[in-house]
């Protein structure tokens, strides 16, 4: 039975916060680069119209991402003071780098990106879009580098019970960092690809059969078709790294209690942690060893080998949701790319498939983050800091109240966001942000104010 103690409530509140934040940052990272691509194609009217529509969605997404990120950062002090007390000398500078090199860059040039039409040249505005896109990617890099370090800590030394940086290169470029960054950036690209295709398909279904809608839908499908194989390849390499550095997580993913060779890959089943087995398992012989060691007879350690190990059920199920969504996205992207080849119009069936997959990237990303973060438990910093040791001591009623309020607010904002997206999609293109706002003349002292 789940105990509603302070530790559980603090974990639940951070999980809700980071999940809500991740939804919007996942879109804003890749969508900024898509908008830059639209700007580069801006000599054609259809791409200018596409930019005018999608930049509004970016502005809305960016705003919600910033607000949710600020709320999340406060929790390091309020709910998890033990983390910053122990690892603040490493985590603090990395978070500062994110603000100085990324957030400032995004914030400075966002105004030019959104409101620069008629005030600056097309080239300057395109450069502003590029710098915003670069800022979103740098922001993701620093956050993911810190998160990866928490999974494979390196380049530190411990003195008087506190971590200190010994080698910043090894801290930033820790063993998990390349795969965390690559996997998340590709996930962002796939999330945006299906958002482009799905929302454009919805517009097509409502009778907007114009060129901007068609080219964006086709672009989204083709982008997904290209990124899916790359994501599978990166995921395979990431799996090899996890098997080497976090074998307990691999054991939970596979639902493997006993160390063995030629381990089967369980397609589906239900983990029974008391009995130490998977009930109703549908498995492929030897495939888990092949994937994780690239050897049919490769050895995989079971959960019995670890005194500290993650909960099996959420990790096992979340991994299969992630893989299942990836397979579904792969099929829809490749079938869609075939149907849309050579400027062909989409079939009604494809349109409905794409609408159904509009937010498939969100599901895959959240499932992936569950595997990543729950699979590291019971540690907050792998092998160094237990999650329970970092939690604050506060009244559970107070934490439960703030959790309930935040959950209600997050669900309300998420529902409003999705509703606004589809409301925008129902309207013909109206690139309001591309229309210059009249500037009032400056009246200097002694001059007569014009009338009429």
Write the layout of secondary structure elements.
Layout: H1 6-40, H2 45-78, H3 81-115, H4 122-151, E1 156-159, E2 162-165, H5 168-172, H6 177-205, H7 211-245, H8 247-254, E3 260-261, E4 265-272, E5 277-284, H9 287-293, E6 299-300, H10 312-339, H11 348-356, H12 360-374, E7 379-381, E8 385-386, H13 387-390, H14 396-426
Helix pairs in contact: 1-2, 1-4, 1-6, 1-12, 1-14, 2-3, 2-7, 2-14, 3-4, 4-6, 6-7, 6-11, 6-12, 6-14, 7-8, 7-10, 8-10, 10-12
Which structural traits does this protein have?
452 residues; mainly alpha; two-stranded antiparallel ribbon; 8 strands; 67% helix
What is shown here, in short?
It is built from 14 helices and eight strands. The protein is mainly alpha-helical and 452 residues long.
Q: Based on DSSP secondary structure assignment, what is the total number of beta strands?
A: 8
How are the strands of the biggest sheet laid out side by side?
A: 1-2
Following the backbone from N to C, one meets helices and strands in this order, namely: HHHHEEHHHHEEEHEHHHEEHH
Which spans have pLDDT < 50 for at least 5 consecutive residues?
A: 431-445
What overall form do the CA principal axes indicate? globular
């Amino acid at each position: 039975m789940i105990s509603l103690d302070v530790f559980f409530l603090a974990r639940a509140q951070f999980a809700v916060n980071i999940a809500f934040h991740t939804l919007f940052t996942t879109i804003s990272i890749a969508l900024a680069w898509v908008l830059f691509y639209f700007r580069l194609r801006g000599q054609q009217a259809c791409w200018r119209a596409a930019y005018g529509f999608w930049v509004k969605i970016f502005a809305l997404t960016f705003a919600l991402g910033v607000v949710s990120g600020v709320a999340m950062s406060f929790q390091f002090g309020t709910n998890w003071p033990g983390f910053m007390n122990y690892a603040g000398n490493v985590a603090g500078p990395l978070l500062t780098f994110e603000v100085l090199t990324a957030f400032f860059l995004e914030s400075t040039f966002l105004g030019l990106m959104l409101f620069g039409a008629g005030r600056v040249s097309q080239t300057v505005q395109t450069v502003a879009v590029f710098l915003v896109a670069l800022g979103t990617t740098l922001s993701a890099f620093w956050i993911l580098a810190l998160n990866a370090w928490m999974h494979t800590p390196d380049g530190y030394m411990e003195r008087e019970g506190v971590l200190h940086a010994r080698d910043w290169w090894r801290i930033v470029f820790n063993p998990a960092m390349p795969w965390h960054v690559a996997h998340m950036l590709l996930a962002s690209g796939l999330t945006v690809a299906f958002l482009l295709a799905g929302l454009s398909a919805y517009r097509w279904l409502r009778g907007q059969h114009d060129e901007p809608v068609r080219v964006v839908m086709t672009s989204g499908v083709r982008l997904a078709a290209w990124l899916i194989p790359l994501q599978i390849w990166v995921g395979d390499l990431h799996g090899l790294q996890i098997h080497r550095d976090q074998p307990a997580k691999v054991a939970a993913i596979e639902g493997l209690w006993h160390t063995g060779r030629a381990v089967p890959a369980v397609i589906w089943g239900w983990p029974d942690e008391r009995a130490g087995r998977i009930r109703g398992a549908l498995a492929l012989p030897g495939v888990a060893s092949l994937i994780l060691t690239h050897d049919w007879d490769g050895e995989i350690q079971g959960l019995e080998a670890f005194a500290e190990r993650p909960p099996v059920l959420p990790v096992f199920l979340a991994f299969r949701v992630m893989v299942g969504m990836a397979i579904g996205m792969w099929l829809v992207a490749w079938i869609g790319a075939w149907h849309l080849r050579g400027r062909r119009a989409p079939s009604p069936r494809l349109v409905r498939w794409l609408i159904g997959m509009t937010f498939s990237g969100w599901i895959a990303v959240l499932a992936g983050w569950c595997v990543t973060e729950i699979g590291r438990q019971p540690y907050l910093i792998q092998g160094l800091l237990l999650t329970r040791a970092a939690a604050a001591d506060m009244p559970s009623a107070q934490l439960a109240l703030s959790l309930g309020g935040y959950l209600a607010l997050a669900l309300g904002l998420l529902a409003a966001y999705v509703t606004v997206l589809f409301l925008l999609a129902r309207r013909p293109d109206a690139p309001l942000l591309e229309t210059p706002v009249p500037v009032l003349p400056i009246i200097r002292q002694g001059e007569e104010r014009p009338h009429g």
